[in-house]
Amino acid sequence: MSRAERAFRTPAIILKRRDFGEADRLLTVLTPDHGKLDVIAKGARKPTSTRTGHVELFTRSDLLIHKGRELDIVVQAEMSAPYLAVREDLTRGAYASYTAELADRFTGAGDADYDELFALMDATLDRLCTEDDPRLVVRYYEIHLLDAVGFRPELTECVVSREEIEAEDQFFSYGLGGVVRPGYAHAGEGVVAVSMPALKLLRHMQRSPFAQVKALKVAPKVHDEAERILIGYITFLLERRLQSVDFIRRLRQT
Question: Residue 199: is it exposed, middle or buried by C-beta count within 10 angstroms (0-12/13-18/19+)?
Fold first, then answer.
């Protein structure tokens, strides 16, 4: 849709929400056709506001947005998917916060085609509400988010020699963005070991629909390793630690 238009309707997932002024909220939202936007929900902090319950964190809402001089303004909001479980369960909420932080960090402001990422984020919030293993939901989200934003990890051939990976323990290079055969473990930046079971899990998640992935029974050790590889790669790409990761780790220790 052209920026010349004064108003537009769009589905939106609320990634961030901050107080703004005395009664407003500043929202960061992800939309399929308009990219990531910062918008003002005027009066949303007032108990009597009709928008208050429709712009909650980690929900999908249908918004009518008027374009403003500096910030766009939400003039109508209707929640279409509340995803209650991520606000009622602390652990699932922490994972939702992590997925939202990733979507925010990997996207820029302004018009962009984020249809694939929007659908992935929407499906992930639904899965976090319904699936028994939220860690598997998040690993699946990570690997497909990386694909959607142009950082798909190479998991089937060595990123140095371009030889097909054999069925043995390998290495993963954060700098080169993929698997490195043992003979080339000295190459690339941020090279870490990856076992064959963890690599098989990552490959399966990368190529398969979630309906097949959710049937897996993943050993805790393999879960931990897949998490280490993906979060390590994401941290390398973003060049920063993620606040939500630290919170999730603290939750596990309680």
Answer: buried
What is the CATH code for 131-253? 1.20.1440.120
d(CA 88, CA 107): 27
Given this model, what pLDDT does residue 2 score?
46
Cβ atoms of 245 and 98 within 8 Å: the answer is yes
- What rounded mean pLDDT belongs to the chain? 90
Q: Strand runs (DSSP E) across 122-252, as ranges?
A: 170-173, 178-180, 191-194
Q: Is 81 left (phi over 0), alpha (psi -120 to 50) or beta?
A: beta
The CATH code that applies to domain 7-81 is: 2.40.50.140
Whether this prediction's pTM lies above 0.85 is answered by yes
Cβ pair 205, 143 in contact under 8 A: yes
